[in-house]
């Protein structure tokens, strides 16, 4: 079976032999100094660069964020100004539209009054022409009737014209007197 080794002759496995311990310490010291002199500064340098890059990136990010915030505020301000400008332009357009409508109405009223005045003038001219034509026709009829009553021809134009004028003047004078008598009777 297993042979037992006396305890006195066996070495303690937890304590290494002294020559190995010395060689191990020397090797550890060499590796430690190599790491401390060569590798550790490079590691610290890389860590410092990384820290600076991270801090610089954070500073750049903060600066970029501040710039973005400032740009956003500028855009909001410009948008607000544009909205105010649009509202002002709408108001101006409404005012101009109202002024244009009022101007067109005034122009239409003026044209209507001109048309009405021209119509009244035309009616007055037509009335005068009709009165003149009627006067001539009534004069001719009166002359013919008077000629038949008197039995003599009244074809002389000068005499006919005087007779017609006297007759019509008499009618014109009789019309106002009849109108005032009618007004007095109505009272």
Low-pLDDT stretches: none
So what's the oligomer here?
Answer: single chain
% residues in beta strands = under 5%
Q: How far apart are the first and last residues' alpha carbons, in Å?
A: 169 Å
Mean pLDDT: 83
Spatial shape: rod-shaped
Number of domains: 1
Number of DSSP strand runs: 0
Helix content bin: over 70%
Topology as H/E string? Answer: HH
Largest sheet: none
What does this structure look like?
- The chain contains two helices and no strands.
- The protein has one domain.
- The radius of gyration is 65 Å and the shape is rod-shaped.
- It is mostly helical.
Summarize the structure.
By secondary structure, the protein is mostly helical. The protein contains 2 helices and no strands. It has one domain (18-174).
Key terms:
mainly alpha; rod-shaped; 2 helices
């Amino acid at each position: 079976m297993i042979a037992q080794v006396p305890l006195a002759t066996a070495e303690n496995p937890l304590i290494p032999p002294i020559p190995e311990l010395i060689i191990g310490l020397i090797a550890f010291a060499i590796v430690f100094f190599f790491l401390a002199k060569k590798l550790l500064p490079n590691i610290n340098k890389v860590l410092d660069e990384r820290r600076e890059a991270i801090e610089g990136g954070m500073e750049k990010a903060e600066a970029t964020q501040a710039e973005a915030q400032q740009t956003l505020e500028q855009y909001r301000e410009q948008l607000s100004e544009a909205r105010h400008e649009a509202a002002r332009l709408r108001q101006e357009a409404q005012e101009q539209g109202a002024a244009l409508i009022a101007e067109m109405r005034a122009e239409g009223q003026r044209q209507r009054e001109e048309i009405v005045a021209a119509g009244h003038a035309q009616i007055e001219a037509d009335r005068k022409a009709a009165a003149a034509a009627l006067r001539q026709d009534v004069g001719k009829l009166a002359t013919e009737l008077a000629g038949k009553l008197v039995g003599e021809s009244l074809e002389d134009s000068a005499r006919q014209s005087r007779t017609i004028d006297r007759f019509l003047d008499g009618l014109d004078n009789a019309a106002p007197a009849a109108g005032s008598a009618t007004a007095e009777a109505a009272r």
